[in-house]
Amino acid sequence: MLERYRGFLLDIDGVLVRGGQALPGAAEALDLLRARGRVLLLTNNSTRSRAGTAERLRRAGIPAAPEEVLPSSYVAAQFLRGRYGPVRYWCLGEEGIREEMGAAGHVLVPPEEAEWIVVGMDRELTYAKLAQALRALLRGARLLATNEDPTFPTPEGLVPGAGAIVGALRGMGFPPEVVVGKPSPIAFQVALELLGLPPQAVLMIGDRLDTDIAGAQALGLDTALVLSGVTRPADLERAGIRPTYVAQDLRCLAQEGLLGPLESGAMEVLIRSPRMGEVRAVLEEGRAPKTVAALRRALPLKAVARRWGQEVYFATPVAVELEGGAEVVEKGAIGYWPPGRALCLFFGPTPASRNPQEIRPASPVTVVGRVLGDPAALDRIQDGDPIEVLPA
Ligand SMILES: [Mg+2]
């Protein structure tokens, strides 16, 4: 699945780090993605510059170069530079904005002289600063918001985000003229330009449906939602936004252990065999969570077909180890059961025998999914044919 992309855009909070700490396996997963294509880390956080964001990641245990990082402070500076050349600005925000605006050639001036007011999260916001911004806007200054995230996660809980400050200005009658952070197309356009890739070659990976996923989809990017941040599986069922893929976290995604794209808790697989071609099937976690989890870890797997009458069994040479340690299965077999179009996993010492009677009495059968499309395709499989099962 990942081989179809030449570039990856990753959100940072909830994808790589949470509460200032690297998520388990995130650094290694990032390296796997880097080996497959160009990587940029696209964050709405405007409090730091590219260098500052890279430093924050390094402290969290995720080495990243400043050139790999795209905070909204940088996107704002580049957007203004590209559209208007160097501008005179004043800022309601933290040092990340001032650093990036300065590096792009923009000039920080007192609010009464500013052409643009650039707003980001400002943890030293005061009533006096809001009043200064209002006076500048009344004089005709234009308003750019780095992002409109209403809140910002910290280890102590949520705190007001840049959107809260933008909201205060909006409440005074001044909605932002430009918002550059996700889900704005500007964030993705700046990122695609830096990647030097068309949208269809890039996968956006994020933890928020309304910003990371919706914003990327609007520009035609494929998307992967990870469930390691703010989105719960139940949210996904309620939301109208459908990511291309869903994965538990970045580590699972990089290893292609996908849950999606069909529904949360489900995973689509391809079953391939030379005589049959390809058949799609879906593994349904809700029906046999441990089995599906074990199978997901085993994928892609190679097997040999065993056919008895109408039934086809895929005798796998892989060891399938279930979670919890106690339930270790040395050999398993996926079977196809025509009457119910069901995919089954058999446990026990099965594949050595060609006799189904030796398999079934000793082997509890767990239904793990169903075949999509026409199951008659499986009738073309013959005994001894090689079979591959891989993530779709
Ligand atoms: Mg996030």
Assign the structural class, choosing from mainly alpha, mainly beta, alpha/beta, alpha+beta, or little secondary structure: alpha/beta
Q: What's the shape? A: elongated
The helicity comes to: 25-40%
* Strand line-up in the sheet with most strands: 16-17-24-23-22-19-18-25
For the record, the CATH class of the largest domain is Mainly Beta
Number of separate domains: 3
- Attached small molecules: magnesium ion
Number of strands: 25
Portion in strands: 25-35%
Distance between the termini: 7 Å
- State mean pLDDT (0 to 100 scale): 82
**CATH fold type of the largest domain:** Cyclophilin
Ranges with pLDDT <50 over ≥5 residues? 259-264, 317-332, 347-364
Question: What would CATH call the architecture of the largest domain?
Answer: Beta Barrel
Alpha-carbon Rg, integer:
26 Å
Major beta-sheet overview: 8 strands, antiparallel, barrel
